[in-house]
Specification:
Strand content: under 5%
Oligomer: single chain
Number of helices: 10
Largest sheet: none
Structural class: mainly alpha
Distance between the termini: 53 Å
Shape: elongated
Length: about 300
């Protein structure tokens, strides 16, 4: 119980993964402006205007922030489901290739291992494609050098990798190493991989509508600007602290939505794509260490 309380405190005070660094300037601005209004009120200037609270009702701003956060989290969760589906389809397709494709010639096992590594390469190229990065040496160990060189000039590397995997499956069918039912099942799994790629691209290339983002920021600034005028008569010198806390709350919620709406980057709150790809690589290595009983 004591360890859980300590962990809770550490999580509360943790800066990594929080949006405090992104919004601290807004918090300082809110507190400073609230302090300025407190000074003017101290010198009997007519800055207390409680009626300004009706300009932007708190419930309206709250609903806008909730909608913003929910929309961003929906994008984040959809991205996670797509990558979960990629993992499952890679595992299923790798298992079927390893078990079902007959080994007729001595090179067949080597070609199957190459195909399985291409499944990992599909995930890695998808990760790089979503991050807007070019082909890196991370892919060099996953494919023959001729494929690696060709992949560097492709506009959409995951599609090229999917083509190579599909071409391998078709070749095995032509060699009678697969029957038509096995080929259909594997092609369907490969189609699912490409579908998940398209879903991730949809998330990436469909940002929050600009007009909505601009209007929400304008309302946040206006709300924090009017707040000290509403509360200074009741709170006096506490106006600065309360204004800073309110700014921390509303700007923090908006910053969270902004950070998680594109879940494919390197931020602490983004999806752990590197770890997911490494997990798939370990799964494939474990699979290739096994020998199907039908071949033993």
């Amino acid at each position: 119980m004591k360890a859980e309380k300590l962990q809770w405190l550490q999580t509360t005070l943790q800066l990594k993964g929080s949006v405090t660094r992104a919004i601290y300037k807004h918090i300082i601005w809110c507190g400073t402006f609230g302090f300025l209004i407190s000074i003017l009120h101290h010198f009997r200037l007519p800055v207390s205007q409680p009626i300004l609270g009706s300009v932007i009702p708190s419930i309206v701003l709250g609903l806008l922030l909730v909608f913003r956060t929910n929309t961003a989290y929906e994008r984040f969760w959809e991205g996670r489901k797509c990558w979960g589906s990629i993992v499952n389809n890679v595992r299923n397709l790798a298992r079927q290739i390893w078990v079902s494709v007959d080994e007729i010639s001595p090179d067949d096992r080597k070609n199957k291992i190459t195909a399985l590594n291409l499944l990992v390469a599909f995930a890695v190229t998808t990760k790089l494609h979503l991050r807007g990065e070019t082909v890196t040496s991370e892919l060099e160990e996953l494919m023959p050098s001729s494929m690696y060189v060709k992949l560097k000039i492709m506009n959409n590397p995951p599609i090229e990798v999917a083509f190579w995997i599909g071409d391998f499956l078709q070749q095995q069918y032509k060699r009678n190493c697969l029957n038509s039912y096995q080929l259909t099942s594997m092609q369907e799994l490969l189609n699912n991989l490409v579908d998940n790629l398209g879903a991730c691209e949809r998330i990436l290339k469909t940002p929050m509508p600009l007009a909505y983002a601009i209007h929400l920021k304008q309302l946040l600034i206006l709300y924090c600007f009017l707040l000290p005028f509403q509360i200074v008569n009741s709170l006096g010198w506490w106006t600065a602290i309360i204004s800073a806390l309110v700014g921390f709350t509303v700007f923090g919620i908006e910053a969270i939505g902004l950070e998680i709406e594109n879940p494919f980057g390197y931020d602490a709150n983004d999806l752990p794509l590197d770890a997911i790809c490494n997990t798939m690589k370990r799964n494939i290595d474990d699979l290739t260490s096994l020998t199907p009983s039908v071949k033993s």
